[in-house]
Recover the amino acids of this structure.
């Protein structure tokens, strides 16, 4: 056994001290909330059953990313430079197909929804363009469903890793994502109903922008005028992330929008 796993009684490693401080604080605050709200045994049992159902339904990632990740992200953002980011959320899947700088995200031939062209440039903090950077993108369709998580959506739909070209530029054709509701039939939906909370998020694009020698940027882009921008169940909207795409004239059956958005990455500290 090493010295660090064999601390003398009463002595704690730095890691034990940190876990102790945080866990003790969390437990203490929950106990205080129980006192402050004069919780009954019936209520205690209802909360206990709800917590058990969250696990059984596999909704812990949803609970954490919807109600807690934004605070961790806001703390991390205080020491980060470059473009504003926001939370990752529960629907990222690695290994999306690699796509060139001018591309369309994989979609159904009859993919519903308004069309969107997102173009821009990836640069380093000092303004140097970053060719060969990656925009790992994923989004819900106009119906608000994510591929890989909803049976009606084909595998890999609206997911791709776009590689920037010359001057760090990219141009991606996709659809305008619909507003998203967290699953309302499970325990998270149950909590929203029980508390009278909206279960909705505004429509959004997810991106992880990365480049050699730089800190990856996890972000989301939203759309001006959308419902739920100021009432996001996941508290992840920031003003810098709201696009106002221009509508292109001459759209026939579908509306077409385009928008430019640049990403600035911070060099990695070595
Ligand atoms: C989502 O689509 C999402 O982006 C977040 C953060 C939480 C739940 C669902
Ligand atoms: Fe999302």
């Amino acid at each position: 056994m090493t010295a660090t796993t064999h601390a003398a009684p009463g002595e704690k490693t730095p890691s034990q001290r940190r876990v102790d401080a945080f866990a003790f604080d969390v437990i203490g605050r929950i106990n205080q909330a129980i006192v402050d709200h004069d919780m009954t045994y019936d209520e205690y049992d209802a909360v206990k059953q709800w917590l058990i159902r969250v696990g059984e339904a596999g909704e812990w990632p949803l609970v954490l990313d919807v109600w807690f990740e934004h605070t961790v992200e806001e703390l991390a953002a205080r020491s980060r430079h470059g473009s504003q980011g926001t939370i990752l959320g529960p629907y990222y899947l690695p290994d999306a197909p690699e796509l060139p700088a001018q591309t369309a995200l994989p979609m159904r031939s009859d993919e519903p929804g308004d069309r969107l062209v997102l173009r821009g440039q990836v640069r380093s903090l000092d303004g140097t363009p970053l060719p060969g950077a990656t925009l790992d993108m994923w989004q819900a369709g106009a119906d608000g469903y994510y591929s890989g998580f909803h049976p009606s959506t084909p595998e890999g739909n609206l997911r791709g890793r776009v590689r920037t070209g010359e001057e760090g530029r990219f141009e991606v054709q996709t659809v305008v994502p619909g507003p998203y509701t967290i699953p309302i039939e499970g325990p998270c939906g149950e909590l929203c109903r029980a508390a009278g909370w909206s279960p909705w998020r505004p429509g959004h694009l997810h991106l992880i922008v990365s480049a050699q020698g730089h800190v990856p940027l996890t972000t989301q882009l939203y759309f001006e005028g959308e419902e739920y921008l100021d009432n996001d169940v996941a508290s992840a909207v920031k003003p810098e992330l709201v696009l106002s795409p221009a509508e292109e004239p001459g759209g026939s059956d579908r509306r077409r929008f385009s928008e430019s958005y640049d990403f600035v990455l911070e060099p990695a500290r070595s």
